[in-house]
């Protein structure tokens, strides 16, 4: 399919206690990223969700070359000094293999309320945190007086292994997230996009970066597609709709939304759809496997053995 600059990964697919085993297997089978996301209270009652950075530390400790990607860390829940320190430590301990994917959340207001945060301030809080963090990572003495954070001569030591800091991939779906990517980010990793919307986001980020006076020469264009591999598109769509229906509340017939945004069916069908995203600009593909627990290892096998080779 004609692209020689593609990179592939997948989310933490097995149970958390199998993190080390999955990471080793993925490294042996040619994946470049393992990702883990987080929520603090996902739903009522909360569904299972782990803190991403400790999970990624386990994955890093079990491997030597696999990059660890937070997809995503919910920035509003962290103080910038604490998060700069935690991520610098993880980057150093993994010998410079951290990619920090960040977002603002908001799907579950209860997790903000129970953390003493106001959900409608999450964007501004995130921007302040990223501004401070990127300066701390560079070794600066940071004095900052913002609406949400105040620092006076703050520093971290030691610094991250990667210079000037670990790649910062911004996630989201709307223009403020794209502006955040253009201002602070080294990459863009949206979710629940169809290919035309992905292409449109690339164009918008280039425009916003121009307004910021930034070059995007070394910018990482990433995407995290949901994938459901089954013998027919219909079966895959039904499985994906069941798996995702409790996580995302969108209007309309949910199975049609799934068809619009997910990779569904056989490896060949998924590759055909994935190629549309690649032609729209995506180069770092991190699959979000969407199936019941008993099918998860098969999905990893088929992605590594059948789907990725179609692009090599």
TrEMBL record:
Pfam families: Bac_luciferase. The keyword NADP does not apply. Residues 16-284 form the Luciferase-like domain. SUPFAM superfamilies: Bacterial luciferase-like. One of its GO terms (molecular function) is alkanesulfonate monooxygenase activity. One of its GO terms (biological process) is alkanesulfonate catabolic process. Gene3D superfamilies: Luciferase-like domain (3.20.20.30). Keywords: Flavoprotein, FMN, Monooxygenase, Oxidoreductase. This is Alkanesulfonate monooxygenase. It comes from Geodia barretti.
